[in-house]
Design brief:
Elements lengths: L9 H5 L18 H10 L8 H14 L9 H58 L1
Length: 132
């Protein structure tokens, strides 16, 4: 069976990885249960029809990638995702804390200015009395 353009993932077509040649060779390798679950979760988000399509496309991308920039390993990216989400949440919390503290500080400064303004006439009267 010869695979047509409709049999190749949209992502593979975009990357020019589609081939009109039949795929007659097979490569087999073992992965851990965790790696399998990661690939299983990721392949639909990358436009792959199935895990084999996803693995083939990733391998070909890796072979065609610029070695200087280096491809991002999907398993590593998936592993780091929760840490980045946690970090983003912490940064957001810190920004909220900074905003709250800034508001409190400005409020205290305004209170101080109001208190100083209220005391100014009394201080002026006391200075005038001591000068005479």
């Amino acid at each position: 069976m010869i695979m047509g353009a409709h049999d190749v993932s949209p992502r593979a077509r975009e990357d020019g990885l589609a081939s009109s040649n039949p795929k007659s060779r097979m490569i087999s390798f073992r992965i851990s249960d965790k790696e399998y679950e990661i690939l299983k979760a990721l392949h639909p988000h990358h436009g792959a029809r199935n895990l084999s399509d996803f693995a083939r496309t990733a391998m070909l991308r890796h072979l065609n990638s610029d070695p200087a920039s280096g491809p991002v390993d999907a398993a590593v990216a998936a592993t780091l995702q929760p840490a980045f989400e946690d970090l983003a949440g912490r940064v957001q919390q810190m920004q909220q804390d900074i905003n709250r503290l800034t508001t409190m500080l400005l409020s205290k400064q305004m209170e101080q200015k109001s208190a100083n303004a209220a005391e100014a006439p009394a201080l002026e009267k006391a200075r005038a009395a001591s000068a005479s």
